[in-house]
Amino acid sequence: ADLTKVTLTYDWVTPDFELIPTAVAQAQGFYKDAGLDVSVVFPPNNSTTVRMLGSGAGDIGFDPVTDVAFAAAQGIPLVSIAVYSQSNNCGLFGRPGEPVDLSTLKGKKIGVYTDSWTKAMMPYILKKAGITENDIEQIIATDDDIPMLLTKKIDYATNCANYALADMVPTIKQEPTMLLGPAGGMPDVPVWDFTVMKAYGEAHADTVKAWLAATQKGMEWATAHPDEAVADLLKLYPAAGDKAYNTVGWNATIPLLKGPNGYFVQSDAQWDGIAHALADTKQIDKVLPPATYYTNAYLN
Amino acid sequence: MSGEAGVKLAIRNLNHNFGSFRALNDVSLDIKDGEFVCILGASGCGKSTLFNAVSGLLTISAGQILLDGKNIAGKPGQVGYMLQKDLLLPWRTVLGNITLGASLTRGAHKADREKAAELAYHYGLGDFLRHYPRSLSGGMRQRVALMRTIAAGRELMLLDEPFGALDSQTRIGMQQWLLEIWREMKRTVMFVTHDVDEAIFLADRVVVMLPKPGRIGWILDIEIPRPRAMDCMTSPAFVEIKRQVMEMLYSQATLHGVPGAQPGGLKVPA
Amino acid sequence: MSGEAGVKLAIRNLNHNFGSFRALNDVSLDIKDGEFVCILGASGCGKSTLFNAVSGLLTISAGQILLDGKNIAGKPGQVGYMLQKDLLLPWRTVLGNITLGASLTRGAHKADREKAAELAYHYGLGDFLRHYPRSLSGGMRQRVALMRTIAAGRELMLLDEPFGALDSQTRIGMQQWLLEIWREMKRTVMFVTHDVDEAIFLADRVVVMLPKPGRIGWILDIEIPRPRAMDCMTSPAFVEIKRQVMEMLYSQATLHGVPGAQPGGLKVPA
Amino acid sequence: MSHEPSPLRDYARHVGLWIVAIALIFVAWELVLVATGLPAYVIPPPGKAIGVIFDNIPLMTQLTSQTLSETFYGYIVGAVLGVVLAVIMAQVPIVHRLLYPALITSQAVPIVAIAAPLVIIFGFGLTPKLIIVAWIVFFPVVVNVLDGLASVDHDQINLARLLGGTRLRTFMIVRLPACIGPLFSGLKIGACYAVTGAVIGEWTASSHIGLGTYLLTANAQMNTAGVYGAMLLLTAIGIGSFLFVVIVEHFATPWRTRMTAPAYFGGNIPPHASTQKQKV
Amino acid sequence: MSHEPSPLRDYARHVGLWIVAIALIFVAWELVLVATGLPAYVIPPPGKAIGVIFDNIPLMTQLTSQTLSETFYGYIVGAVLGVVLAVIMAQVPIVHRLLYPALITSQAVPIVAIAAPLVIIFGFGLTPKLIIVAWIVFFPVVVNVLDGLASVDHDQINLARLLGGTRLRTFMIVRLPACIGPLFSGLKIGACYAVTGAVIGEWTASSHIGLGTYLLTANAQMNTAGVYGAMLLLTAIGIGSFLFVVIVEHFATPWRTRMTAPAYFGGNIPPHASTQKQKV
Ligand SMILES: Nc1ncnc2c1ncn2[C@@H]1O[C@H](COP(=O)(O)OP(=O)(O)OP(=O)(O)O)[C@@H](O)[C@H]1O
Ligand SMILES: Nc1ncnc2c1ncn2[C@@H]1O[C@H](COP(=O)(O)OP(=O)(O)OP(=O)(O)O)[C@@H](O)[C@H]1O
Ligand SMILES: [Mg+2]
Ligand SMILES: [Mg+2]
């Protein structure tokens, strides 16, 4: 049978456990059953996914939700077709046994990424701690935040729980202390979503629907069989690296996936929260109607 | 061979200016076929300029240069030319350097290599064909350079101070070797030197040039019989010619290249 | 001044080997204070080796080298030394090159610069003190090199073919200039050259060295009266000395540096 | 007395060539856009990239000065280190033999990979950035100076010995100036590369934001014009550094371009009472 | 007839020095660990890094061969491009003047920053990686060959004219061999840098995984031993490339080390009927 080609553009330069639903759907033949031939490409850096969709180097994108808001602000016709995770699992991380204490945050060194997500969330944390940006020292630590945390070069790291746990648990056999999402004063919004360029979605509505359905099947299967799912990922994507890392990461991801209305479903409230977070930190000029950002039209 | 009978090279009213500086002023000279002519003159009197003109390297300002009656002004590749610097290519063997002319024009064939090897064996470099120039002494290098010039097969050869960098013993050996080649190969030779002894020892005729502007001052026929042995240099005939030539050269001498020198410091014969 | 009366340099039974090759064999020579001695000899007969030994550059194998009675073997910095290559430092002006000796030992003071300037003005280079060597002619460069040697203030100066790279007119000017300096400064000079005319013209004594092993062959006193004018070179006395020297040099001549040459190709006087 | 050719016209010609060449690069950039038909949010047109700079002059000035100072100090450290290493290696053969493979190794190691431990060892200040810039810069300097020192005319060294020169003075007066040409070649190459080192340094860990970090943030915010604006400024720093070294070279080696020593270069000569011949 | 010194002992000494030098680097590495007391997840001990390689030989072989082939092809492209550009620039002065500033600019642009557009324009195949490696390699080659061509002895060119040489043959026989020394200097520097280019290329466009992608993943996953294992292999590729060029240079320029031409280098001479003197 003739399979329809679909290319997923990932959000990160190399594959890791968040790709598991797709990897499983590939390995278990869910895409094939849906008449799809799915391949995955990886962007040159962690902020180029949208541009690759725009230049035709991918059909469906996997990226942080902030990308959609920025794209809308730049007039790029991008739309979220499904959220990947339903809750905000990002926050501050401390060394094992040293709880994150907002009351003593003043004067601390905090490792941050240069991404917009961190930038949008920090003000909420600071607000809750009752201090301003000038009261802490932000260190651009990028990928080396956890080693820096453990070697006491910084006091807290910012990250998402599934990645922080995957980093730390296999290495030091201990969990970091965490202050996540709403507990840290942050809005409870999704972190990742699937996107398409509007023109692609309109022209290939059935393909997108079929792809989402098959991906959801992969997600459900992987939730039920986490170890096999990791094995599928490593088989198809050897570059995903270490098994322990991906197992810890995937197990920490599973609880984020399903919302009150099931997988993938998005709401005005979520997107309003995201847009406001960015507008409050002056990263976008104005908050657009939620419908500009997302559509549930491709969900079954 | 359409020129005057027996004249190999005819230089007619040659003028050359570098900008406003007149380097050669109305130079006329006939070189007979098979003749050995030496050119003497103070530094800067235009000897190399004359050779560059004859070889075609230089675009002359005025005049004619006829080889066998044909104008060769501005046409390189018609005559052999050898300089004080041997200009051997370090990356070519002795054989490769001798056959350079062929390689540069049409590619060296087996015949070229064989001819070059004959030449080298004949004139004492047969054991060095595979050697690179760096393993040769100064005298050997000049000999290879001369063979390169010979192998290029031109009937007129211009040699511009070819032995200037050699010590006097090697130089005397090379002079005799050159005379032997000249005799056997029957080439026509123009030879620039600063060494009065060398010029007289080698030449059929000595041309003395004068500077500012560069021009021909005198031409002397050297009537010392050939073959010449080395001890002829202290013979009365030789010394008398040398005395004349030195008078020609230094009657004009300023302390060339020594600007600002006090004239009192110089002993110039009146 | 504890040496023999009037003897500046005494070389006693000097031997030097490079590995198993004997470069100098039992060389003994006394140079008188204020004397001008020229050394002639085939290439490779050890002239430069002798100078290197006297200058202290070389650690000699055996023998003694006494300057004013003190052993200076292996101690550089005791005598002046000048080579065919002028070795001017391109990044120093004429003045800077003349004062190089002072700069290298203790730093050049105002007095050194003034002395160097006097020297340059006196010997015709006053206008070029601020110039870099690249803007000088070959003759001027050699003059600066000589002034550098003079300014270093040693009483014995070794000159190793200092004019070998100059054309003959410039060379004759330089020879006369050197004689003038020698007369005015009252230095002792040892001078290596390949040019027989030059040696006889300059020297009080000519030392002829022989190769394999390097040794002294003959020593000739040159009794041509001073000051010598250039035309003395064709005088009978001069020519007679030259004849003798050439016989000494070439009676031994093999075609040095021209291996494999056919002996038949050489005309050597019997 | 001496006639120096006025270098003014020469300078003008050089500047003109640079302008034309850079204009050509912008033209090529536009052509790529036209040929590929890529939208502005993928690759912006040159005008937009330049526009970002002029619309945000205070920010851009601050970013540029931060990156510039990292580049500058790192460059100085690298250049000095390169010269010192080369000098030591040239003087002590055993150090030379052992260190040379280490030098090659240092450049074969992907610098991007050693950046993290540097930060952990040296903290977030200027130090790790300086090390990264210096790491890149020192190599061409060392290699060139070593080559230069090795090819110093042996006769000039002998001359210095004959004149009784001390080891140090011989080194300063003869050896070092002799390799100033290769030194400047190395410095010029290093100047081109230095700014890349500063960017890698900023990407690794910084508490201050410079053009490199701005570039990352702009990229994350899909501010493509900002990305390219920062790149233009980075490139300008690189070119500027290169040209700066070219100018320093010009003034530091007057003997290559002039006939006489300029006054700033010890061209003053002792006053001479008279130019008449007199007993010395 | 001729006595060539056996180069065998020379080689042995060189190899020995490399081994000692590399051993010293490992010792320094251990010392840093002892001095700083850093845990193994920041910097692993050398043994652990080497262990990772030997524990995963099939994977490491595959990664290495991928990265090696990118390095190799990119290097070839860069080297050829460098020589061709230099030749064109040396022949056509106007191209030289306009392109020289562009060359400087190309190196002043932080390569890490232009990688993304390359991928967008050229896709995920080998192309963008080759471009990045070539971009890094071509510069030292161009600069060195240009310098070399500019310093060809003018008298040798005149000699070729006097012998009636054609333009092409003069170029091949006189000009090009004259700059083979500088060419190899450029090639050696380029060989050191090439592997860094391959890493940047893999980080940017990784459809096949090589050592660079592995390093990135291992780094993100705090598999520090893996990071340093990959770095060791990358460094080995860099050093290997460098030494490979050194060996090619040795055989390609026999006139620098030998007295006579070796047989592989046209050292065969025509048979000679007799060595007796005879009329030519
Ligand atoms: N390319 C040139 N441009 C300007 N002037 C030149 C050029 N070539 C030579 N001259 C000048 O022309 C004159 C003659 O030079 P030429 O080289 O012919 O002298 P020469 O007799 O060969 O001297 P030498 O004995 O030193 O070789 C000199 O004054 C020289 O400065
Ligand atoms: N450093 C050295 N090692 C080995 N042999 C040497 C060395 N220096 C000189 N020789 C040899 O010693 C001999 C004398 O050399 P020297 O340079 O003293 O000759 P020379 O008389 O100055 O010759 P020329 O007239 O060519 O300058 C030569 O055979 C030379 O090959
Ligand atoms: Mg000439
Ligand atoms: Mg000598």
From TrEMBL, chains B, C:
Every ABC transporter domain range: 9-236
So what family is this one in?
A: Belongs to the ABC transporter superfamily.
Is the keyword rRNA-binding in the record? Answer: no
Q: Which GO terms describe its molecular function?
A: ATP binding; ATP hydrolysis activity
SUPFAM superfamilies for the chain:
P-loop containing nucleoside triphosphate hydrolases (SSF52540)
SMART domains for this protein: AAA
- Gene3D superfamilies in the cross-refs: P-loop containing nucleotide triphosphate hydrolases (3.40.50.300)
Entries under Pfam families matching the protein: ABC_tran
Keywords linked to the UniProt accession: ATP-binding, Nucleotide-binding, Transport
Keyword match Coiled coil? no
Out of the domains of life, which is the source? Bacteria
Q: Which InterPro entries match?
A: AAA+_ATPase (IPR003593), ABC_transporter-like_ATP-bd (IPR003439), ABC_transporter_ATP-bind (IPR050166), P-loop_NTPase (IPR027417)
By what name is this protein known?
A: ABC transporter ATP-binding protein
Automatic annotation (TrEMBL), chains D, E:
Q: Which InterPro entries match?
A: MetI-like (IPR000515), MetI-like_sf (IPR035906)
Please provide the record's keywords in A-Z order: Cell membrane, Membrane, Transmembrane, Transmembrane helix, Transport
Its chief place of residence is: membrane
Per the UniProt record, which residue ranges are transmembrane? 15-38, 72-90, 102-124, 130-152, 173-196, 225-248
Topology in membrane: Multi-pass membrane protein
Any single GO CC term annotated in Swiss-Prot or TrEMBL for this entry:
plasma membrane
Question: Where, subcellularly, is it found?
Answer: Cell membrane
Indicate yes or no for the key word Glycoprotein: no
| Any single biological process term in GO | transmembrane transport
| Family named by the database record | Belongs to the binding-protein-dependent transport system permease family.
Name of the protein in its database record: ABC transporter permease
From what organism does this protein derive?
Acidisoma cellulosilyticum
